[in-house]
């Protein structure tokens, strides 16, 4: 199952569907860092929790903490990731926090056994060579 309808508040990114990889391999880890062709500040986390994929900016909106290293918890039916630096929480579906902070979230779809993320730039599970970033 994939997440994101495109109508959720934190999802304003216009882009193309980016092939990330096969569901089988990507569902083996709770979070994977997807490198963005724009560089470090634009990387994206791909979460796999309770049979669903979610994607959001990898750096916390507060101070840039690595959300892929954060704890994931469910409270009142809401899946949240907690930043490991200052414990800010973000809803995996909407990107909303219990504070006024907002993380950018991205649509995810599953098609023909593969995971796709809708994003404005190229994404990869491997870092981009320095001369290929753009």
From TrEMBL:
Any GO molecular function: metal ion binding
SUPFAM superfamilies: ISP domain
Domain Rieske: 20-117
UniProt keyword terms in alphabetical order: 2Fe-2S, Iron, Iron-sulfur, Metal-binding
PANTHER family membership: FERREDOXIN-RELATED, SI:CH211-212D10.2
Listed name of the protein: Rieske domain-containing protein
